[in-house]
Amino acid sequence: MQSRLEKLYRKALVWDAHAGVFPSPEVDLNLLQEWPDCGVDYLSINVGFDVMDWQDTLATLAAYRHWVLAHANHFVLVGDTEDIDQARRENKFAVSFDIEGMNALNEDINMVSVYHALGVRQMLFAYNLNNAAAGGCHDHDTGLTEFGKQVVGEMNRVGMIVDCSHAGYTTTMDIMHESSKPVVFSHSNPIAVWDHQRNITDDQIRACAATGGVIGVNGMGIFLGDNDVSNVTLVCHIDHLADLVGCEHIGFGFDYSPKVDVDIGVILRSRPDYWPAGQQYDTQGIKHAGPQQLEGLVENLADAGYGDDDIRGMLGENFKRVAASAWQGASA
Q: Is 319 helix (H, G, I), strand (E, B) or coil?
């Protein structure tokens, strides 16, 4: 017989705002089955990041889109939140795509609507280092450029979630000032709990909440603590966010990836500056919390005093609220 908390989890909308699957046309996307097996209903899948050429991002997006549409018996490529609701009714797994950084635009504002038409529903402005649109969290943060401001407006127009993860402090504050829609940090943790350049300050957290946005707790051990991915540590980050801005601004973006049969070392070794020394990226055996911990985390949250509505919000309703607003844009 299922316990009350097991039933809560099984009935809740469960949303993972960012998968860290290495973006490559060679990746076997059957690995995505791990998420629905863990009770996840919706996942945003990374199809590119600034380390890649924009052509490689398009090639990966084309391959992933084709694969999802070819497996329509089990997967749904999401255009809006109604598609997620329909997928749940049909016991299918809902997915859309995201891109980490603006190099994928090739400095062409028209590419925003192209990516949107192909299923991208979330874009980040930088991936650690600066680009033509924005400053990165591991770089001299120049803030949002004029091109970046145009991109924010175009994302708002077509219906994409504006995502501040991986960007620098000044850039994120600029983005949140420019956006007319709620803004997210899809996979970022509070720096007050663990000091890392990839984590975000209380000012950034408050500014995100003021837009109506959500902060997705990241599962990577070096962003959570000293390579500690326990549910106890996850709750520490959640507690800080809840105390600061309330439970309605918390979600999960685990940045998790199962192992892939692709040699990712080539691209990682080609640009080590994206993962600078002194930031624990050289930690041996980096651990990662992922969707397999979510059901147990519900019990930890209940034990910590969070109510059922708070937990349902964190599991998925909060990100769905943002998506319902952000995805209401033009069709092209």
A: helix
- Cα–Cα distance, 207 to 217 (Å, whole number): 16
What average pLDDT is seen over the chain? Answer: 94
Domains and CATH numbers, the chain: 4-326 (3.20.20.140)
Low-confidence ranges of the chain (pLDDT < 70): 1-2, 260-268, 330-332
In angstroms, the CA 136 to CA 100 distance is 11
Give residue-wise pLDDT tens across range 259-293.
Answer: 755 555 556 677 888 888 888 888 888 899 999 99
pTM > 0.70: yes or no: yes
Residue 35 main-chain phi, psi, to 5 deg = -70, -55
Rounded Cα–Cα distance for residues 263 and 115 (Å): 26
Answer yes or no: are the C-beta atoms of 217 and 326 closer than 8 Å: no
CA separation for the pair 164, 18 (Å, rounded): 12
